[in-house]
Input
Amino acid sequence: MKSILIVDDERNLRKLLAITLEHLHITIYEASDGQQAIEMINRYYPTLVILDIMMPGEINGLDVCRHVKSKPELADISVIMLTAMGQKEDYNVGISVGADKYITKPFSPLQLLYEIDFFLLKPKVEQVSLGGLNSVNSDN
Output
């Protein structure tokens, strides 16, 4: 079953996003910091992570994204960075650590919903080795 993990230290934003996404009839998880996010990702393996960068604690959103994208078993989890850090350098760093999409706050709820729909509806792609040849299978 598809699911979304919302990671932001602002409780009101997490709740607003969760309410906005209720119509999708999927499981929504929430985390308030990077450590909790990594634990939930490893436990629940969400389809999509909506991730803030600046959070309390030693693990920020960039660290969480690096964790997801560095582990082969988590590689097909999509990550949308949703952050107030809107400089070009911030965007470049977010994309370089593996974010699939980078959206700055304040954001358009319609744009975010469009992006979420895209990531939830995209087919799962897996690499299959065929004796030295690689084939891509699409699982709808």
